[in-house]
Amino acid sequence: MTPSARPQPLRSPEPSRRVLLTTGSSDAHTWNLVHLQLFLEEHGHSVLNLGPCVPEQLLVDTARMTSPDLVVLSSVNGHGHQDGLRAARALRADRKTRSVPMVIGGLLGISPEGAATRTAELLDAGYDEVYADGTPPTALLRRLADLGGACTGRAAA
Amino acid sequence: MYRAGRGLTTSAPPPFAPGDLGAFVQESAEAGELVVQPRMGMVGPEEMAGGVAAVAALPERTVATLTIDSYTRVGDHAAATAALRAGLPLNGFPLVSHGPKTTARVAAAAGRATPVQVRHGSADPMAIFRTMAAAGLAASEGGPVSYCLPYGRTPLAESVAAWRDSVQFLTEESRAHGRRAHLESFGGCLLGQLCPPSLLVAVSVLECLFFVANGATSVSLSYAQQTHPGQDTGALTALRLLADEFLPPSVDRHIVLYTYMGVYPRTVPGARLLLRRSAELAVRGGAQRLIVKTETEAHRIPTVAENLTALRIAADAARTAPRRGSHPGGRSAAEADAEETLAEARTLVTAVLALSDDLGVALLKAFDRGLLDVPFCLHPDNRGAVRSTVAPDGRLQWTDLGALPLLTTSRRTIPMTSRQLSGMLGRVAREHDQAAAANPPPEPAPRDAPASSDEPLRIAFVGMGPRGLSVLERLAARCAEGPPARPVEVFAVDPYEAGAGRIWRTDQSPWFLMNTPAQEITMFSGPADTGPHRPGAGPTLGEWWAQDDPAGAEPEGYAPRAVYGRYLTYVMRRIEETLPSSLTVHRVPARVICADRARPGGGQDGGAHRLRLDRGDVLTVDRVLLATGHPVNEPDEGQLAWNRFAREHSTPTRPVRHIAGGSANEMPLAAIPAGASVGILGMGLTFYDILTELTLGRGGSFAEGCDGLLYLPSGKEPRILAGSRGGVPLLTRGANQKGPDHRYRARLFTAERMAALRAEGAPLDFETSVLPWLLAEVNLVLLATRIRQVHGPEAAADFTERGAQALADRPDPLLLERLAAGYRVDSRPLGGIESLARPFGGRRFGSPAEYHKVLTEWLRADLFEARLGNVDGPLKAAADVLRDVRQTIRTVVDFGGLTPASHRWFLAEFGPVAAMVSTGPPQLRSEQFLALLAAGVLEPVGPGARFGADPVEGRFSVESTQVENSWVPLDFVVDARVPGTDLEADRDPLIRGLMADGEIRTFTNALDGGEEFATGGLDCTDSPFHPVRADGSVDTTTHVLGIPSEYTRWFTQVGSGRPGPWGSFTRDADDIAEALVGAAGTGRPVADRVVAGSAG
Description:
CATH architecture of chain A: 3-Layer(aba) Sandwich
Number of domains of chain A: 1
Helix content of chain B: 25-40%
Radius of gyration of chain A: 14 Å
Number of strands of chain B: 30
Largest sheet of chain B: 8 strands, parallel
Largest sheet of chain A: 5 strands, parallel
CATH topology of chain A: Rossmann fold
Shape of chain B: elongated
Order of helices and strands of chain A: EHEHEHEHEHH
Strand order of the largest sheet of chain A: 2-1-3-4-5
Largest interface: A-B, 28 and 28 residues
CATH class of chain A: Alpha Beta
CATH class of the largest domain in chain B: Alpha Beta
Mean pLDDT of chain B: 89
Structural class of chain B: alpha/beta
Strand content of chain B: 5-15%
CATH architecture of the largest domain in chain B: Alpha-Beta Barrel
Structural class of chain A: alpha/beta
Distance between the termini of chain A: 14 Å
Low-confidence stretches of chain A: 1-10, 151-157
CATH superfamily of chain A: Cobalamin-binding domain
Low-confidence stretches of chain B: 1-13, 446-452, 1083-1096
Number of helices of chain B: 32
Strand order of the largest sheet of chain B: 1-8-7-6-5-4-3-2
Mean pLDDT of chain A: 84
Oligomer: heterodimer
CATH superfamily of the largest domain in chain B: Methylmalonyl-CoA mutase
Strand content of chain A: 5-15%
Radius of gyration of chain B: 34 Å
């Protein structure tokens, strides 16, 4: 939706991937998204950043249109668990986006209690990985490097 | 360029309403004081009012804040209301859901002098402004840009249109009511971080111009503390100068500074240092108001106490700060900073104003073209072409101007990396944590010494009947769970036996029965376990009765009221025998005759309550619970006339007497001689008590006859003539087929639907908006039960499901009838509940004998229905719905949910009819009624009975307008109606004194249009139920529960809890207990507030 924050990649990874960056439908925070976009772009990936308060339908429609290599949901308002479950169910319910890899991370609940249950539910709903708050963003780079399939990043960018 | 500061002119100011925010800030500025203000929003009106009162009570110059929750912010009032009803936590005060009355009450906690501002964050504030305006509030904040771009996806065009309409509404509505709207732009914050000052200043000025263009005459311009004190000082100077340049001189304006809105220091000293620096900045830069942050900002939602601390620290720092004009970097640096920001901001403002005469259109064009562009903002309508950075010296700078019309600056640097970004976002926090660790900021001078922790919190329970007992039980249970910081001392003041009180005295006639089965009653807030009976775990009345009197007890039946009294005293005793160490209870067998307050600080809530007791001494306490129960009222004109008439015509051989309403136990029924004619006014539960006392109580007995009960008179009975509006007794209660833990789940008359209805349209008209849903629910159960009797439970469930779906949008009885017709049962729904309660309508009877015959048939039919049960009997199952959804009705009606006219109708028409249908006596009572009627002892007079005084006969008389030859002279008239709550007529000296002092007032349901309904009940807030004073302020150190608050709340005449999940009886008690434990200091956060916006 917004143009890329356009710093030059510091290095070109092999392969370069296309990331759809999103957040919970109730989450108005954006600094986390801005930071992740910069970070991923610096590492040679291309990022489509959907911005704050992303409705499930917008996420699904965008994912259908752009077929990203990875969907990254970052949420810090404490509703990430509920919002994230809805987002996953929406993506997994659509034939065209059913198998898009997706991960979630951030402050997903309002308190640390129940983190293990939340993680299990999110994995069950279809996330390939759930990052606890405080996980360094380099974990995303490993995830992107581990993705199978052809490189799509440069071609699409 | 750098002009001398603008003097604060005071040319004959127009008289502003008390609490006018603009005028308050100007006065404070003239006195040389910085106004300090928290961000504070709690879900409950009580906590919110407590917070508001605490802020207002500070010796600093404060503005109180109502910060609303996220659901209300995004306009999802139904979700906020549902969360509210379900007791879920919200991150702010759901102003729209609470509605204007509650909001007005909460705001009143600020008193008259302290302004109250609503802070929200909404891109469409119309609903908030409407509620505010109706609540008499006129100050808010935000803006079409600043509450749109940083907060989500609402298109900017929608936000501009919504803000235009909303500002126009608020300013006009306020003006029409003699108030002046105040609007503060949030433009000085935007994303909170990394935005160069010139854009913040420009947006703040543009939004204030937008407010003025739409009618505002009092505005404030904001700026959020950024990364460099010198640059910030310059920005404040620029903001003030630019405002003077562009705003019309007649517009009242001031500058408000926000303490840093980005990532906050993690340590307490670091946070305090940053807060102190913001207060110093405010003074130096000439801001007149400061919105503070707390030291727990980085970790969690702060408590009220933490907010108060922050306010005190800020005010302390402001008092000791160097005045305006001083500058950390010297005068030339100050001028350079101010000039640069002013020049850039002026260019931006001028460029936008040139786009259109309509400022709203100009703003849209400006963002579309990138002439305004917020760095790092991801909103779809923000171009996102500009970039900025924190320079090595700490100043914010542009690194990419995008399409901004700023030609003079060119400081392109290398693009920012993600690592640099996180470094910059956390820079201020880091710096302050480090600086404060090396050199901690001073503590603010303490203004009040906190209460010593071993000083007990003293609480008087005025009235120790079931309501007082219920609070004590929860208080003891809570103290046992975790001791509060201070010990708690309770004084249980009641001239009658503690626990039972006046109404449930243990020495009353054994003939008076309760009207709820014993096993459905408990005073313990949890079931008995293997441990000793104690608060939170104890037997129901049924269980206790069976243990206490194995031979006589009937747990499934209805216990004598004296037995319940003994149970209540048992509960009281168990509480005293199992007290946790933190709690002591003193019984004070006395009456409180008056109360006043020691007010050392001059504040209303400052000092202790002094309660004068009738035995002479004075009880001094910190908290008071008013649970005085059934009132004794002064006789009204009619009653006085009857008393006079009786006195004039009574002779020793032929006494004539009027016995006023009240508890049957207290009536001088023994004074009625055998054979005298007694008219009983009203045929409710008290009527049955009197009837039993005058028959069984006089030695009569009932025997099983071949056709029901037979009455065998003792010969000492009087002749009993009973009359009421409907001419029939209460409907018999259905045989109970529901377990003690049964909870009904409504399908159509749901709590959610009613909450939504209230949120959308309060005040409501009960008859047109609420009653149709209630009737639909009643009919759904009626028809489903009929279907179940014929076709079995599956068919009934199927019908219920289909019925609930068919009526989901519209409670149309015809749809239900059509649906039920498919099941080949009697498909006629009830047209209204009055057809049950008033079976005879306007029907006429040729003689009392004819009427008695018809009445007998009717009551026999009713008994037949009752024997079918409250699950299997269609009519009784349907009637039980009214009992089951009583709490939902309360949520619609209580605290001014109905219009005055509808409230009046509800109490006069619906209430009695609902009571007729759903509060009736056990079958035994109806069987006895029939036997007494057959024996000629009881003679019901007929529908529309009229009691009067006959000067010719020298006696009272009664007559039914619908029964021929029904006129009968009477020696005695006994009023068997429950006296209504009417504080104006209450004979209790305590209530009278509190009324006279304005410490309590009666609740008047009033609309702005002038329509009023003075209810006579005590005006109080929602949980934890504080009384409202005559001046509208809230007494947060007093709670009121039960019958005195009738009419403000509905159906408070409940003297027992139910086993199983807590109902409102126990919940209300627990809410007050929680507030009392909180007052004794649990250390648990009292308050929640919104986590501000997107920053950090």
